[in-house]
Write a structure and sequence with these properties.
binds nicotinamide-adenine-dinucleotide; single chain; seven-stranded parallel beta sheet; alpha/beta; Rossmann fold; 6 helices
């Protein structure tokens, strides 16, 4: 068997993915069922969840869940229903995030929009991770969680509700990794750059700032996400922030060197 064969053990492993109706969450959820892992696709949008499952390689392994993760009662319902469907949930991906609107800058963002962004990104990320970890600890089973942060956890985005929620999530990954490591539960951050995935309406001109010369796609992220989630491939990786950005974060006030005629 090759090193990268059979990254998951579908007889003992099952996954819950938030934001699975679109973009990065959708690509990861579809890739997981493609590996034979039973997966709950959770999202606030019923149409996109149905479409994501239908378009996956193994719809028979996928179960939809629809609800608003800004709502604490809905999070409880998700935990109960996903556990009822899957049994012990060993893998968790938190990709759900409300829309980013350029009008929500520091002078524009309302209290409600601020609170909703923090509730979905940070509070749901914490609450779901903690409750899933409690169940794994009780069952004496290892687990692997992947939370989608952002380069804007560390650099401004002109959207303070978004960047501060991602900065909080980046620290949450470290807190949880440190606390849960002794139970064999790994917690990591996936840090995308500019991914034309739905949540980010990208200006194609941005590509000139990206060393690999193009914007990313959701499917660029899925293989690495699965590798980090896999207890076989990434058994010794926890608390890490894994950047996948085509080199975008290398951009600064120095342009790349002039290499003459090469
Ligand atoms: N696309 C990028 O360039 C990029 C860059 C950095 C980080 N990220 C992060 O990656 C994740 C996915 O990004 P994307 O571009 O695929 O986003 P997206 O908008 O395409 O998908 C987000 C999904 O979350 C769902 N959602 C929103 N609010 C919800 C709620 N209250 N309850 C349940 N589901 C809800 C949406 O319906 C949508 O399907 C996000 O956390 C985002 O912050 C994306």
């Amino acid at each position: 068997m090759g090193l990268l064969d059979h990254p998951f053990d579908p007889s003992h492993e099952a996954a819950l993915i938030t934001g699975a109706g679109n973009g990065i969450g959708r690509a990861i959820a579809q890739a997981l069922v493609g590996e034979g892992v039973r997966t709950v696709f959770a999202d606030v949008n019923p149409e996109t969840v149905t479409a994501a499952i239908k378009a996956s390689a193994r719809p028979d392994l996928a179960a939809p869940w629809v609800g608003d993760l800004a709502d604490a009662a809905a999070r409880e319902r998700l935990l109960a229903e996903a556990t009822g469907t899957l049994g012990t949930i060993t893998h968790f991906v938190h990709s759900a995030s409300p829309p980013r609107r350029e009008a929500d800058h520091a002078l524009g963002v309302t209290t409600e929009v601020w609170a909703r962004m923090h509730a979905v990104n940070l509070e749901a990320g914490f609450h779901l991770s903690r409750e899933l970890a409690r169940k794994l600890i009780a069952a004496k089973q290892p687990g692997s969680f992947l939370l989608l942060t952002s380069l804007h956890a560390g650099t401004p985005r002109n959207l303070p509700h978004y960047s501060t929620s991602k900065a909080g999530l980046a620290m949450l990954v470290k807190e949880l990794a440190k606390t849960f490591g002794r139970f064999g539960i790994r917690v990591n951050a996936l840090v995308p750059g500019a991914i034309a995935a739905g949540g980010f309406v990208a200006d194609p001109a941005l590509a000139r700032h990206i060393p690999l010369g193009r914007l990313g796609e959701a499917n660029d992220l899925a293989p690495l996400a699965l590798a980090v989630l896999s207890n076989r491939v990434s058994a010794y990786v926890t608390g890490a922030a894994i950047v996948i950005d085509g080199g975008l974060s290398l951009t600064n006030w120095f342009a790349p060197p002039d290499l003459g005629d090469l």
